[in-house]
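FORM 7B: Structural annotation worksheet

SECTION A. Query
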Amino acid sequence: MIRFENVGLRYGMGAEVLRDLSFQIAPKSFQFLTGPSGAGKSTLLRLLCLSLKPTRGLITVFDRDVVTLPKADLPALRRRVGVVFQDFRLLDHLTTFENVALPLRVLGREESSYRADVVELLKWVGLGDRMQALPPILSGGEKQRAAIARALIGQPEILLADEPTGNVDPPLAKRLLRLFVELNRLGTSVVIATHDIGLMNQFDARRLVLHEGRLSIYE
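SECTION B. Predicted structure
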């Protein structure tokens, strides 16, 4: 699904932020991405979601070479990768329903074609009674679940989540983890970037550990 071979990345003329990364994200797999602050997790996530290209090495996403990929082909490839951002990135003037439906509206689809899917997904993440609420009145946990639903509405083949439990209490963190585990059980590959050792210890999964720009893998 995603393959890195001897990937390195630097910003400008500075030292490499990531060095010699080689790993694969397999279909229907589940993994945690972890490491200390400054280790390069956010940069690696940007490479995974196709918002950065490597300075050197090879990245293939769904059998396409990221470096040589024509710009015209990039949007369709990105739609196969869902991203849950740490800061939610919800639009305050749109309801929860409208925020989740936004990726489909951007594609020009009529609401009648996706309304039932959005409602079902919001119920699945526990926001069935908050569909018409605006983000400013949602709790941190509700915003996180709305962000997860928005990332999933396009039915991506892989989901990247950046610190999805960083702004919630432990019981809600456990509930969010169950959502990700269930999503993976249904066939989506999941990568969760987190500092939360307690969260990782709740689920036996592969760990990608970054330290000073280098990657260690623990199966």
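SECTION C. Observations
DSSP finds seven helices and ten strands in the chain. The chain has a mean pLDDT of 93.

SECTION D. Sign-off
Analyst initials: ____
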